[in-house]
Amino acid sequence: MQLPSSLLENAVAEFSKLPGIGKKTALRLVLHLLKQEVSTTIQFSEALVRMRKEIQFCKNCFNISDGPICSICANASRSKETICVVENIRDVIAIENTSQYHGTYHVLGGIISPLDGIGPEQLTIESLMERIQKDHVTELIFALNPTIQGDTTIYYIQKKMAGYPYKVTTIARGIAFGGELEYADEMTLGKSISNRQPIQQYIK
Hints:
Blueprint: H1 6-15, H2 23-35, H3 38-54, E1 56-57, E2 64-65, H4 71-74, E3 79-86, H5 89-96, E4 103-107, H6 125-134, E5 139-142, H7 148-160, E6 167-170, H8 186-194, E7 197-198
Parallel strand pairs: 3-4, 3-5, 5-6
Antiparallel strand pairs: 1-2, 6-7
Helix pairs in contact: 1-2
């Protein structure tokens, strides 16, 4: 793509690094910013810089946060005795949008996948075990994507925590096997949370 300005070309190149953004879309976004007031573009860029520099991960659940503890963990109305285990932050957002869950979360940071070089030691499983004891957890809900890797992760954690006196459930499989939570509609995902099932029905 031939552009009349190297500055424009550099900006397009940076935007096109974003997922799902090709060169043409990147050019359209850059040209849109050029039409705005300088102050608007500066505000846009400053918001990105501030987000990247200041955003944190909750020390308790590993959700994104503006401070050491995220707004969900800090909310006194959320049940600390119930933890919903998810793969990533996008899953927290997806479940929160259903308004069907009122406990806390634990973000694993991935799922066990030997082919991708991801083992249990690279996930936040040890921190989860500490929370279960510290917060006197009564129910652990697994809301991982219904895939072989997701089920393997559930199986590993369940075996590692065998003997702990708490209820273990998983979201109902209204989510298609092989699907991803972030792409499920809110009603289906909400019903899956509400109608969660004992984990033994799925992990043998």
